[in-house]
Amino acid sequence: MPLPNARASASPWLTVILLCVGQMMIVLDQNIVNVALPAVQRGLGFSSENLVWVVNAYVIPFGGLLLLAGRLGDLIGRKAVFLTGIVLFSASSVLCGAAASETVLIASRFLQGIGGAVASACILGMVATVFSERREQAQAIAAYSFASAGGGAVGPLLGGVLTDLLSWHWIFFINAPIGAVLVLVGARVLPRDRGEGMGKSTDFLGALLVMAGMMLLVYTIVDAERVGWGELQTLLLGPVSLLLLIGFVARQATAAKPLLPLRFFRSRSLTAANIVQFLMIGGMFGLLFFGTLYLQQVLKYSSLQAGMGFVPIAVVIAVVSLGPSTRLITRFGQRAMLLLGLALIVGAFVMLSFARVNGVYLVDFLPASLVMGLGFGLAAPAVMGLGMSAVTPAESGIASGLFNTTQQIGGAMGLTVLSALVSARTNSLSAAGKTEAESLAGGYHVAFLAAAGFTLTALVIGTGLLKATPPEGMEQQGMASSEENAPVS
Questions:
Q1: What pairs with residue 257 in β-bridges?
Q2: Are 237 and 220 contacting, i.e. CB atoms less than 8 angstroms apart?
Q3: What b-and-e string marks burial along 39-57, b requiring 16 or more CB atoms within 10 Å of the CB?
Q4: What is the tens place of the pLDDT at every residue in 221-280?
Q5: pTM of the model
Q6: Which residues of 132-159 are buried (b: 16+ CB within 10 A; e: fewer)?
Q7: Is 245 in contact with 109 (CB distance < 8 Å)?
Q8: Spatial distance between the Cα atoms of 430 and 424, rounded to a whole number of angstroms
């Protein structure tokens, strides 16, 4: 179904490509920084304690504003929100690249996180409503899935190339020309939509509660590893953030024009898809982070070599998500492909848990990478299709924001939990007299097994909550025949 009040784009696939490039740029930026952190630390004299804020200063506003930004897209128009976010993201990227001090870089990263949230919150909703024909919808969502998952896998490679061949400044400067093209082309190509309008009944109190609650929750999660889960800061801020979010839920039950209508969660497809994605992305972040560390700290790869090690994952995700996934989903249904993809991801993580200290890339990392890419190439389009098919086009912005929020919280929580497990296991092995490489490898093994546990839980939940429906009987891609799986209205 096309966007309401939208002028049809002269080239729907150009619209999809444009949006996917924007998504990939934002996803890349979340992962490209990790490889360059040592160079940033040397260049600006960051202390070890403050270096983590190069990442956290971006993650906190990004995770906290996605839901609000998605709803703003429904109210004032998704095109306007997307382009505004790209302008802010690109401008703040230039500030990041030109930063000459810790304070300037951290402040610029905060602005970049705001721009990233505003731009990306509406992208999935726009992609999912460009086409009305089921197969084309599946192809568009598959392209978005590749931009998200493939962009994450390419991040370490691009970060290594830019850092080694140029400097760390260029991991930020590269966003400026891409952003300029997106804005210039997007202003002409993207369909114009007026949105519902703000109005007097717009839920500003709910917006304030969810923004404060989400940002505080993300801050508590990402800083818990540094200060400790049992310390006063975590024990105090965690409950406060939850109280703010509980207040947001209570507000949504009474507001005349709620920011996030609670009826959304009557849809079993939407709820289950978000839970599954939460767990799946938690595992994916573990792969990107600890897989990179395994290659660099255990196998002693350079940042460029480690980045190259992730190329096969990106290639397989691209081939599968842009190729056979659409035909398989159309023939066998989204649920079947999601469950198959999750099962493959579990197997890949188990394979990685056996990676050796004196390992060989072709034996210890590449086979698991190929299986992982196949799993994500099948699972990501299916889970996004299941979730987006459960809402009306007029509410696709808030649904897109919800999906992106689930990704960010899942990634932050997953990485924090996995990091704590790695630290405990590494310290235990080191105290037992193991070498540094043996201790690190043992810690990463635990992380990969825990990530397999996350994904296995997602598989069980998907099996139990998602209903199998004959694809041939669906009028729209992924639409369920039962009432609880129908688009909410």
A1: 202
A2: yes
A3: bbbeebebeeeebbbbbbb
A4: 777 767 777 778 888 888 898 898 898 888 888 877 777 777 777 777 778 888 898 898
A5: 0.74
A6: eebebbbbbbbbbbbbbbbbbbbbbbbb
A7: no
A8: 10
